[in-house]
Design goal:
Length: 273
Amino acid sequence: MLKKLNQIPLYVLAIALLLFTGVPFFIMVSASFKSQIEFMGSPWALPENFSFENYRLLFESDFFHFFLNSVIVSVISVVAVIVLAAMASYPLARMKFKLNRPLFLLFLVGMMIPIHTTLIPIFLLTKNLGLYDTIWALPGPYIAFAIPVSIVIFTQFLQELPKELEESAKMDGCGHFRLFWRILFPLLTPAVATVAIYNFIQIWNEFVFALVLTNSESNATLPLGLREFYGQFSVNVPGIMAALTLGSLPLLLVYLLAQEKIVKGIAAGSVKG
């Protein structure tokens, strides 16, 4: 009985967090089924008549073109970050050399750099490379700024893996490349899921670099495309809510899939003594 009473604060905190995160999402979805007039009259109430007009407008607009651009940029960036960061973390976590600690600290310093202070040099570099106003201008900066925190996550996780796996593989004549990709990397599933979720959310919602490095609507990502619902004298709020609802679906999907991978990765990575 006492144990159940001690758990009450945890349940209260969980319910509070659920309301804090769930209510805004519920209001967003609810508003997407309202007309502009109904939303202005009762923004917090449930829709009296469910209208799919806002979603019809999305299909008639360039929304799915912006959506596709965001998918391409986000997937390429996240996959590249996972591969590069995982490979870079292997020598930092499993090899002993003089520059091991300084290099790791250098990546920590990279996490402290305000990314928007680099807008001007990245803009100039992008123009010189001939990538300005293309979606291929975006993965480079996204990958570069995501690598430091990803390396820290992978390094810390690799350091927790038992040394016996590595020693057994080397006794069987396994080189570093095969050792990492065949033995260690499959055990990094929880770290891969964490890196994928964190970076996908950051890249999917990124606005400033997309605004500076692209100019035409054909190369705009989803955060830029939402400006299409802003008029000179009015804002189609229900239309924006509908776009945000559809735009948030990939984030929810990635989170749900990666959450399952975390549980499976922990079970697969457990080592019995």
